[in-house]
Q: What sequence folds into this?
């Protein structure tokens, strides 16, 4: 799964994702972004736009916004069949920019690891979004992150990981219209292990009130934690 992520390179979002319509008030860097919080999301709306959205997809037909807390991830294997996601998969795909995501390794107190793409300050996770209105008519835009089976690197930490899109696939993912099954299967393959790195970080990340650059710093090797 993917339950926390970072976006520490806010200033580079506009250039990296060819944003033509940036947010009026750009958000601050985030180092411990959690479900139900807002994140900057890239959508295609002739041309690319950056939109703040709530993490945890709330389907347009939902009766209560609380459903979003259970919709932070969508499994690649079933996303095309699930009612909560299948319309968004056809019509409302998005990019979730990140500088890294956290995963917890089972064992002595569940050690948090930060996973990143090597030589890429920013990369994109495959996402879906939807629009929901509360009883007063206020619109809430929300998103989910698609996950797939872990690659060899991540499988030493957890059995799932986000779908990371290659730069070549980002434009196609954002393009309007449905994707055929072959395209989806190719894009949903685990990102190559050799292009990633993962290292243990402070357990301070366990508390969502902690949100500073210190969280993404590697633990000292002397502490005995295993690096990948």
A:
């Amino acid at each position: 799964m993917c339950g926390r992520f970072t976006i520490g390179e806010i200033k580079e979002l506009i250039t990296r994702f060819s944003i033509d319509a940036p947010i009026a008030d750009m958000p601050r860097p985030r180092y411990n972004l959690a479900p139900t919080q807002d994140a900057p999301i890239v959508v295609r709306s002739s041309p690319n736009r950056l939109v703040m959205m709530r993490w945890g997809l709330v389907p347009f037909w939902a009766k209560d916004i609380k459903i979003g807390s259970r919709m932070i991830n969508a499994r690649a294997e079933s996303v095309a069949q699930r009612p909560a996601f299948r319309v968004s998969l056809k019509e409302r795909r998005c990019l979730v920019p990140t500088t890294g995501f956290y995963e917890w390794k089972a064992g002595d107190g569940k050690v948090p690891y930060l996973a990143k793409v090597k030589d890429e300050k920013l990369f994109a996770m495959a996402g879906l979004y939807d629009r929901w209105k509360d009883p007063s008519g206020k619109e809430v835009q929300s998103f989910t992150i698609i996950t797939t089976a872990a690659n060899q690197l991540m499988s030493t930490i957890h059995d799932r990981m986000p779908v990371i899109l290659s730069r070549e696939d980002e434009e196609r993912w954002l393009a309007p219209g449905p994707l055929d099954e072959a395209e989806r299967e190719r894009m949903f393959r685990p990102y190559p292990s050799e292009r990633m790195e993962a290292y243990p970080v402070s357990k301070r990340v366990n508390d969502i009130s902690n949100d500073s650059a210190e969280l993404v710093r590697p633990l000292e090797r002397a502490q005995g934690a295993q690096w990948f």
In short: The two ends are 19 Å apart (CA to CA).
